Amino acid sequence: MEQRTFLKILDANLDRAREGLRVVEEWFRFGTGQAAQVAECKALRQQLAHFHTEAMRSARDTPHDPGTALDHPDEQRRTHPLDLLRVNLARIQEALRVIEEYAKLVEPALAEAAKQWRYRVYALESAATGSDLRQKLQKARLYLVTSPHPDLLGIVGAALKAGLPLVQLRDKDAPTRPLLDLALRLRDLTSRYGALFIINDRVDLALAAGADGVHLGQSDLPLAAARALVGPRLLIGQSTHAPEEAERAVVEGADYIGVGPVWATPTKQGRSAVGFEYVRYCRGHIPLPGYAIGGVDETNLLSLLAAGADRVAVVRAIMAAEDPARTTAYFLEKLDSGS
């Protein structure tokens, strides 16, 4: 009876992994035309099929399986291809982990194979979701933090078209439902241009919208708690205003930091400007991408670069620009030449 139970578990999870791989394979085949990933998905499916024995199939008892009647409302909801891919990749990884553990009891060779398959699925995940997020972060020198605006999507779209690599949705006062709707539209927009999408403060909205990460202030959810919720893959940024805060962000596992405010700014009322000294400190001592923020615009960008900054985050400089695309192009040109 015990042996039959193990076989049932392996049968169900081999099916689950193969089904998920087929969903991902179809996107590589018809959605992106990534031939190498199509071949990898096919190879993995064939290898799973090799271990899917007749004894496992014979142990199946679908009419008496209580799991077949269980469902979740989120199973019926997919907002964009990235959401669909992430769900199915997670399903594959979970199934392979179950196989790895239970196969140790009946088929050690399958357990070892499942361990290796999981690492290969991680590589597929990076390819399916637009390459590794941290590699994209390393290349991103300009960071737009949005402020509420009637034409927010139009402004962000123009900046993305001009090459903007990184966008944060920030709105402290908006109700949750409208903010989620806006986040989903921004997720779609940034995905079209291959840009990173971050949500300020709200880990729940970042997960619900399929964002690439969340940005936390000093008084927000602790970084370790946020990491436990979003997992190892998503990005977490941390606002910092002093050396000890930057050093703590490194220790706690932030992926990047905000450095500022360099100049006084209405988006950080009551916060004293840190000036160039803190920018220089972070550039010389903090091994994370650091975005100088706070009052940065076209009139002072060159002096900031001369002081040692190599990345900047802006709000009004683009959100209030007469020509957001031209302003974005200017910042990108100066940042690239400065680097």
From TrEMBL:
Keyword Transferase among UniProt keywords: yes
Similarity remark: Belongs to the thiamine-phosphate synthase family.
Cofactor names: Mg(2+)
Originating gene: thiE
PANTHER family found in the cross-reference section: THIAMINE-PHOSPHATE PYROPHOSPHORYLASE, THIAMINE-PHOSPHATE SYNTHASE
Protein species of origin: Gloeobacter kilaueensis (strain ATCC BAA-2537 / CCAP 1431/1 / ULC 316 / JS1)
EC class name: transferase
Pathway named in the protein's UniProt entry: Cofactor biosynthesis; thiamine diphosphate biosynthesis; thiamine phosphate from 4-amino-2-methyl-5-diphosphomethylpyrimidine and 4-methyl-5-(2-phosphoethyl)-thiazole: step 1/1
Ranges of residues in domain ThiD2: 8-126
Record-given protein name: Thiamine-phosphate synthase
Domain Thiamine phosphate synthase/TenI, residue spans: 142-318
GO function term, MF aspect, one: thiamine-phosphate diphosphorylase activity
SUPFAM superfamilies: Thiamin phosphate synthase
GO CC, alphabetical: cytoplasm
Signal sequence, start to end: none
